[in-house]
Design a protein that fits this description.
The chain has 23 helices and 18 strands. By secondary structure, the protein is an alpha+beta fold. Among the domains are: 75 residues, Ubiquitin-like (UB roll); 71 residues; 102 residues; 52 residues, no CATH class; 123 residues, no CATH class. It has a six-stranded mixed sheet with strand order 1-5-4-8-6-7, sandwiched between helices. Strands 2-3-9-10 form a four-stranded antiparallel sheet. A two-stranded antiparallel ribbon has the order 11-12. A hairpin with a 4-residue loop joins strand 4 and strand 5. Helix 9 packs antiparallel against helix 10 and helix 11 packs antiparallel against helix 12. It starts with 5 loop residues before the first strand and ends in an 11-residue tail after the last helix. This is IQ and ubiquitin-like domain-containing isoform X1. Keywords: Coiled coil.
């Protein structure tokens, strides 16, 4: 057994248990004559009662029972001492006893094995470390009486291997409370247990047993199992630690550590055979014998020639099969190639047709600003063609008359376009209002860990949903007279209820007055066409009512908060077109612009009146460029510095609006890709190609071997021009590695003859 150790036993982990240990001695006898096994067994049974902290806490509820248990314990110890040998005085002082400490006021029980020769002060010092309480603050009492620090357990009356219970409390519970010590989680059994052993028929003895923790695993050496009771008995070596071998001074090495080379070799063993013949005294039947006659003798030359012919035949068939497989693969590859070409031709044709249909739909039903730019660009092209035709066909007064008629026709076209713009603005405004109301009435959503989306309606979203439905009913025109009166009555009650519950304002009063006016006119039988203006006023005021956070709290999250006028003074500029001060965000600046010019509205108006340019194709090229670069290099920033005007200069001026290889001029099919794919895209590292050419170009590993010298020189020259133009932009100048073109590089770009100068 090891030295006494202390461990806290929590009430949750302590259970009173009655253990039954059976000691069996089995002797196995074997009988030579009988196949069965005989065993002689002698069994001694004794009961062991394990008393843990929970059992003692439940049993010792009052002081009288504690005294009674103590007297019984003393009697048992006396009986046990009579049966054992007499202990000396030195052995008594070094003996241990079970000490149970009841922490007050938590009434948490701690059980330890303590030497009875030590003092109460030593016990306090032992618990001061575990409880983190100074020893002079700890107070130990026995039977509600304080125990002196210089008293030992022997002075108190504790017998060897006995048991005693103290109560421990703190003199300063506010600063140093008695907190229970958490039990060790890795062990379920305490370090000290008290075992009650039955020695005689009516006598028992309590024995303190200390549990020794094994630091390493022990090998299982087997055991025995009783045939009748099925009880397993393990060898004693399993319960005890093995002895450690003494260390030797000589360093030893094992033979297994040496290198062993294994080699396998097959051996053919000799096999002896014999033949039995008929003789005197032995008869062998010849019914199953076979007569074997020798065949034609084949020479080695004939044999090898026959095998050669067979090999040639096999090779011919195999080669025919391989040739057939090769031709089938070529035929299948050709069919796949033709099918792919047909699919590509059909796909390109369908894309072209879809592109024409989309452009026609944009021209017939313009909705966005890009659609109207497309219309004005088409009008500009039509006017230029008509002017050129008039200049070629007529002259003089007829030419002037034709130009006046052309101007009048152009004016009509512009008026028609503006009417479409107003109608589209009305539709877009209605869509924007409906989208705004749907966004306000949308329930709150969040995605759970399993991917399911949960929706929740609050009181504010329900209110916004009711107002949205009411606004949709107000703006609908397909209503009868009675249905319109019901909608107006609902709207009136809604507005009045909110004004009574919250506060009255001029807006709600105006809505109620307009509703009363329309109801009066409906009752008088006024036509619907005469009520359109009034209904539009009601819808406008009710929309303003919905956008007021006092009546619709949900809308406050989607309204733009007005900025501080003091902050606006820092970022405002004067527009030279409309002579108005605008915010810096209202100006469309180029990358090479040095001063603020016209605002966005003035630029759009100037474009529609004079230039009539369409940047939709360049926007599409820039969008494809940004998407491809975002996949290849997410940290690239040059593509986001370019604007539509810069890309137009790059496409139209530098590359001539055509492919660098095939000369294809349809901007719908052109893309800007990297010239050297291992470098980031930049205006001096790009090439304008069609979609098919770009896909093939990006697969090249060596550009110098793939393209001709003339093509490479042309591309390098355009890169030099792009470097010179975009180097003026401060943001792109940082991305330039070489801001100047070296003279050695010019020799690769230009082909010139030497110039000679003659001096006199």
């Amino acid at each position: 057994m090891s030295e006494p150790e202390s461990e806290t036993v929590s009430p949750e982990a302590s259970f009173g248990a009655m253990l039954q240990v059976t000691q069996t001695e089995t002797q196995v006898r074997e009988d030579d004559d009988d196949d069965g096994d005989g065993d002689a067994e002698s069994t001694h049974e004794f009961k062991v009662d394990v008393c843990t902290a929970t059992d003692m806490l439940l049993k010792e509820e009052n002081i009288k029972e504690l005294h009674k248990d103590q007297r019984d314990q003393d009697d048992i110890n006396k009986q046990g001492s009579e049966s054992n040998q007499t202990l000396s005085s030195s052995d008594v002082g070094s003996s241990t006893a079970t000490v149970k400490i009841l922490l007050m006021p938590e009434r948490h029980m701690i059980t330890v094995a303590f030497t009875i020769g030590l003092t109460i002060l030593d016990l306090k010092k032992h618990f001061s470390l575990d409880l983190r309480v100074p020893s002079d603050i700890i107070q130990i009492t026995l039977d509600d009486k304080s125990v002196d620090d210089d008293q030992t357990l022997i002075d108190i009356g504790v017998q060897p291997h006995g048991m005693i219970q103290f109560e421990m409390s703190s003199l300063d519970p506010e600063n140093y409370p008695m907190r229970p010590v958490k039990p060790q989680q890795e062990y379920n059994m305490p370090d000290v247990i008290t075992v009650r052993v039955q020695t005689d028929t009516d006598s028992y003895q309590d024995v303190v047993v200390e549990i020794e923790r094994a630091t390493r695993g022990k090998a299982f050496l087997g055991g025995y199992r009783h045939k009748v009771t099925k009880t397993e008995f393990h060898h004693a070596a399993v319960q005890t630690m093995p002895k450690k071998r003494p260390d030797r001074d000589t360093e030893m090495f094992s033979r297994d550590t040496q290198t062993v080379e294994l080699k396998n070799q097959a051996q053919q063993c000799s096999k002896n055979a014999s033949t039995q013949m008929t003789k005197i005294g032995c008869y062998v039947s010849n019914m199953e014998d076979k007569l074997i006659t020798p065949g034609t003798y084949i020479t080695a030359e004939e044999y090898h020639s026959k095998r050669l012919r067979a090999v040639i035949t096999l090779q011919s068939y195999v080669r025919r099969w391989l040739a057939k497989c090769f031709t089938d693969s070529l035929r299948q590859a050709k069919e796949q190639r033709l099918a792919w070409l047909e699919n590509e031709r059909r796909r390109k044709k369908e894309e072209k047709e879809q592109q024409i249909r989309d452009e026609y739909h944009r021209r017939m039903n313009p909705e966005s600003k890009a659609d109207f730019d497309l219309l004005y660009n088409a009008l500009k092209k039509w006017r230029m063609e008509e002017v050129e035709r008039i200049n070629v066909t007529v002259s003089g007064a007829e030419r002037k008359a034709a130009l006046c008629a052309l101007l009048e026709q152009e004016t009509q076209f512009i008026s028609s376009i503006e009417r479409h713009r107003m109608a589209a603005g009305t539709r877009n405004q209605d869509k924007a209002i409906q989208a705004f109301l749907n966004k306000c009435a949308e329930p709150k959503k969040w995605r759970a860990f399993d991917g399911k989306v949960t929706q929740m309606d609050t009181q504010f979203t329900i209110r916004a949903k009711e107002l949205r439905d009411l606004y949709s009913s107000i703006t609908r025109a397909q209503f009868t007279k009675d249905e319109r009166l019901d909608v107006l009555l609902t709207l009136k009650h809604t507005v009045k209820a909110s004004s009574r519950s919250e506060h009255k304002c001029k807006l709600t009063q105006d809505i109620v007055d307009l509703i009363d006016r329309e109801v009066d006119l409906l009752m008088r039988g006024v036509k619907k066409s005469n009520l359109e203006g009034l209904r539009k006023r009601i819808a406008t005021l009710f929309l303003q009512y919905i956008k007021t956070p006092a009546f619709n709290p949900q809308v406050s999250k989607f309204l733009q908060v007005p900025q501080d006028p003091a902050d606006l003074k820092k970022n405002i500029y004067l527009c030279r077109g409309c002579n108005e001060y605008q915010s810096s965000t209202d100006f469309a600046l180029k990358t090479n612009a040095s001063a603020v010019g016209l605002c966005g509205r003035c630029l759009d108006l100037d474009n529609e009146a004079r230039r009539r340019e369409d940047f939709s194709l360049y926007k599409n090229i820039l969008r494809c460029l940004r998407e491809s670069e975002a996949e290849c290099s997410p940290e690239a920033k040059i593509t986001y510095l370019l604007q539509e005007q810069d890309l137009r200069y790059l496409v139209d001026v530098l590359w001539g609006s055509q492919s660098a290889l095939s000369g294809w001029k349809d901007l719908h099919d052109l893309l800007l890709v990297r010239w050297e794919k291992h470098l980031d895209w930049s205006p001096w590292n790009c090439i304008l190609l069609t979609k098919d050419e770009a896909a093939a170009h990006l697969k090249l590993e060596n550009i110098e071997k793939a393209y001709d010298v003339v093509v490479i020189r042309n591309v390098k020259q355009k890169h030099a021009l792009a470097r010179k133009y975009f180097s003026q932009i401060p943001a792109m100048a940082e991305c330039l590695h070489d801001t100047e073109i070296q003279p050695a590089a010019l020799s690769n770009l230009l082909v010139s003859k030497p110039i000679t100068k003659e001096t006199k």
